[in-house]
Amino acid sequence: MKAALIAALLCVLPALAQTPAAPPAQEAPQARPRVQILTSYGPVVVELEPALAPKTVANFLRYVKEGHYAGTIFHRVIAGFMIQGGGMLPDLTEKPCHEPIPNEAAPAFQGGLRNTRGTIAMARTEDPGSAAAQFYINTADNAALDYKDPSAAGAGYCVFGRVVSGMEAVDKIEKVNTIMRKGMQNVPEYAVRIKSAEVVAAP
């Protein structure tokens, strides 16, 4: 009986040895959320890149979900360059916002995001870590805004998504007449409003 048991085990062991190991578990790719920015010139839908700029995307979505962008304007418009908004009211007072976020321009750039036409990026001051609520949409390829090096001058501006529909509205906004108002240049003569911003499902 002992011999029979050993023989049975010898028959099973080769089969066990040939059983393929389970493949290592892979992380599911991060979903790319979409946000519709409804402007007075029509809707603009942007698709975001949380895998490449996680803190920036989370920050933007926080403002979207809080309703921060409703009632703000595109307060800086430069033809052949970009349109900037999301932080000021029609009277050019700045809307209160949360603490600024770290600049993720370097990892975003290394992941393939560039300041090319149709991309959305964070606006900031000369301080690389000063971005809060304001964003801009590139209306041209603006390589000068990309990450170059860790210095303040080369830190770049963080791209975190791209326009997937409504670029025609962006192009209309880019062509509005601008004036100087309250010491600010390139302000649209007539307010270009953001009526709302909300997360939408991908088609």
From TrEMBL:
It is an enzyme of class 5 (isomerase). GO terms for biological process: protein folding. InterPro entries: Cyclophilin-like_dom_sf, Cyclophilin-type_PPIase_CS, Cyclophilin-type_PPIase_dom, E_coli_cyclophilin_A-like. Residues 1-17 form the signal peptide. It catalyses: [protein]-peptidylproline (omega=180) = [protein]-peptidylproline (omega=0). It comes from the Bacteria. Its EC number is 5.2.1.8. Residues 42-199 form the PPIase cyclophilin-type domain. One of its GO terms (molecular function) is peptidyl-prolyl cis-trans isomerase activity. Keywords: Isomerase, Rotamase, Signal. The keyword Signal applies. Gene3D superfamilies: Cyclophilin-like. Belongs to the cyclophilin-type PPIase family. PPIases accelerate the folding of proteins. It catalyzes the cis-trans isomerization of proline imidic peptide bonds in oligopeptides. This is Peptidyl-prolyl cis-trans isomerase. It comes from Mesoterricola silvestris. The gene is ppiA_3.
